[in-house]
Amino acid sequence: MSKPNLQIALDHSDLPSALKDVKNVGDIVDILEVGTILLLQVGDEAVKCVRAMYPNKKIVADTKCADAGGTVAENVRKAGADWMTCICSATIPTMKAANNEIDEIQIELYGDWTYEHAQQWLDAGISQAIYHQSRDALLAGETWGEKDLKRVQKLIEMGFRVSVTGGLDVDTLKLFKGMPIYTFISGRGITAAKNPRLAAEQFQKELIRLWGE
Amino acid sequence: MSKPNLQIALDHSDLPSALKDVKNVGDIVDILEVGTILLLQVGDEAVKCVRAMYPNKKIVADTKCADAGGTVAENVRKAGADWMTCICSATIPTMKAANNEIDEIQIELYGDWTYEHAQQWLDAGISQAIYHQSRDALLAGETWGEKDLKRVQKLIEMGFRVSVTGGLDVDTLKLFKGMPIYTFISGRGITAAKNPRLAAEQFQKELIRLWGE
Asked: What DSSP state is assigned to residue A124?
């Protein structure tokens, strides 16, 4: 089983603090995400800056696109993004239009999506999904539960490469041991650490310990 | 029955062309929308510019927020927005967090939302919803059908102020005659017209003809 990717989510409200954090950890992580908050505040300039700093890294624009998929995808691709996200409640034509304009689309799973929807995404040529631990559960002090892990496993079995995110830290990675997770996404789990670079290194070390090189 | 509002959606990919269009019609329409495409490209600067140009107009930031509602709402409020949109698949805590930070939230109806969800939004203190004519239907050459009108009517009866959008032009407004629509949203129906100012004036004139002053 290959080592899952580590993705840093830049969910900052301003460009300087995002660039400071990405400079610290960009070389260590596998995928750089320009988060929704940052995009809504700074626009495609954020993607352009991260691309200029890291010409060879995979970059995701977390647009959570719900409509006008072709235009949004074309815009972020031109700014330098490899991938972008669509919200699960977008229509299939929106997803397809986006998928035609950029290398890959990832479906953001929020709310009451179903496996029937998931099959429609696969049928539309989309094979990446992002599973969020519910904010309700996190606020209630829960961590990743059996229900979450079963859903992730089912999506993997359907043929998705699944990214997981939400309240992840180095200690929670082992909950997923034995599962072929594609990517772990962390934002403040890395950027809010006392030493973000060390935190990113510890994430990678733990991923290698659990999944191998 | 009071005249529905007319909202211009600025769905441009760059700031200058958005500002050109809003300058032409901003005084005629009732509500100015900084569209998702524009936000993702330009960031909150777009909201700030429109607010500076129109200090007394209602401004909506079409964030289609799916997560981090409190942060996104605080950011767009600080930039000058009165209202913002949340995607229907956002969780209730996300919607509530946004609603606490800004004057009003509007729920964007995409995908398989249910009236049960809609009641949860009302219970959370959210009473604006935006009904989109399906893109599939528009691409297939359909216009607003009975099914759409029934759904809009049901939402109004539940207690929502409902905005409608998707392929609207002056000729389609009469389909809604007799229904207390809160707002008609038009983007290219106005901005792509030969004379956008005239198009906006014709929209308003038709609204007054059908609903009264």
From this structure: T
